[in-house]
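Ticket #4471: complex job returned nothing on first submit. Input attached below:
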Amino acid sequence: MLKLSDLSISYQDKIVLDHLNFTAEKGEIIGVAAPNGTGKTTLFNIIANYTKPDSGRVLIDGKYTYRNEKEEVLIHKLLTTFPEQKDLFDELSGTAHLNLYASMWNGSSKHVPAIIDKLQMTHYVKKKTKTYSLGMRQRLCFAMMMASDTTVMLMDEVMNGLDVTNVALISDCLSEMKSKGKLIFVASHLLENLDLYADRVIFLKEGKIVHEQRFTEDRDIYLKVELNPVGYDELKTTVELPAAHVYIAEHLLCIPLDGLTLPEQTRWVEQILGQFGHNLTVGPLGTVEYYEKYYS
Amino acid sequence: MRWNYLLFETKMLLHNRKNWLLGMAVILFFPIYFLQYSQTDIETLQDQKNVEAEQFHSIFKAFPEEMRATKEGQEIYDNLTEQASLINMQRFYLWDEEENDSYIADGLRLNELRLELHDAGNKGIHPNYIFSKEEIHKEVALLNYYKKHNVSIVPNPFVASNYIPAALDTISGLPFSLLVLLIGSSMLLHDQQNRSVMNGLPVSFLQKIFSKVGIHLGQIFVFLAAGIGIGSVYVALKTGWGSFTSPVLLYSGGNFSAVSTVHYVLLQLLAFLLISFLLLVASILVSSLTKNMYATVLSIVFLLLLPTLLLSAGIDASWLRPLAMIDIGAVLSGEAAMRYDSASTDYLRALSWFAGLSLVMMAVLYMKTKLQYTPHPLAPGKQN
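Support reply: We reran it on our side without changes. The output follows.
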């Protein structure tokens, strides 16, 4: 559905994307994790052709690329980008915004009331957006994406300003949209939340994808223990840690269980429980752990 | 989708308070300007004929006595005598609408005599009292129109049918251009201010431009139509409707012809339409470069003023004449042709220029859009 080939862009001396390649299919949610200023928004802007890359190309649906304006319009019929809250029209109601997106992409706004219900916006959606709170605006922006109902959606900072209830609500909607075959890119700082609905999370660093975490495949299981650097150094002197272990952000020791025999696994559990029992967890590395691994 | 986009842009336009304010100004202009117009010293047909009649006292007084002794001199004197008589008869006919035909017949004969004097070299006539050929042709055109269309002569210049073309002539040129530029100045505003909402809409740039220009043109003409309507009713209540079939002089190809008021007003509106289109497209082009609506309006206004500024500075700016023709009132009345000493500066040329310049602007916009998709060579470290 979407293929990024050899994308590169740099501003002055800063390389933002460096020969980046990536492929995604319908029915996937791709999380994009990276600190601010590492190219998430630039990547989305290039996919939507708001920014021209220095090299490389974006191929959508196996045939469309940004060769001319006609193709751009064809791509934009398949693709929407998440509006920024500050760009909403203050003098228009939420309904007017939703009707715009629904009619521009689907020629009809029949499905708008259902979206309003789903996102619990009924009590405010008819008011002008200048009266909305941050969370109300964010829900409206998300509702606009739902109203457009395009195959590809690029959502930058989709959970900004949302409370826990609304994060859960939007997460449900994302999962539902995925099940309907949408390809959704989500850049969010709520990393744990990404684990709930994303199929993959890519980590951008120095213009490249340094890691791609796949939630749909079997993942390595780790013994994870909170450990300060002093404790880590002590542990290293007393026992020989497996070569594949990782010590993340100077606070989390992760020992892979994969490749260890059952007695060895038991020995490590006993060892860690004995020394740091209350801090032990078992499971795969999550987005938060990978994030800390690459960016701390 | 284009239709939906058009509807949305229309909705945004209806929310634009600045344009409503400008619209109110246009609508109010027509009744308010009449207060000033009705105080102006406009020469009525009676006034004109009275002045012409009075001039004959001086003409006869200044006529050299010795010339009357010659055959040629006597013929000229007889011609002048007949002219004086005809003018006095016309003064009489103006009192009675039933005598329109006589007024016209005498008028045509009068101008024949005037032309005969021109052919004879206007000998013995003081230069101050020579009726110019241009004036003769204008009057003949009007009289022929009255005769051909069997239209009654309207002696009152303050009726609605006379006022509306005059009011439109008054706003033509820089005032109307400024109005169009100010109304159009916010055309790209929400595309810039609400970028992330508007950027990805599946509509091409040219479709967006045509939609915006189209609805802004519509809005300008709704304001104009409302202004003309309200102005006409107001003036009609004050002084009467007059006749919209009465003649107005139109300059074309070095000559004057008389056309009906409706014809003249439609020509004015057609010119306004083309001027508005040209200025709206130009403002989109300029604002895509300046990214600032004030800079856009100022730079276009400066361009429009340039021919006048250069002319007053004594610099030849004939190549900027198409811009000067924005003052379509002066073009239609032939004033522009005289001002720039160019017989070809008529409405047909003006309309052709407006259409041509609009096409050029659209071609530039099209090419500009097309160039955005031209692949550029690898540019590491490009400036952002």
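Chain A touches chain B at residues 8, 10-13, 48, 50, 52, 54-55, 66-70, 72-74, 76-77, 79-84, 87-89, 91-92, 96-97, 100, 103-105, 107, 144 (CB under 8 Å). Closing as resolved unless it happens again.
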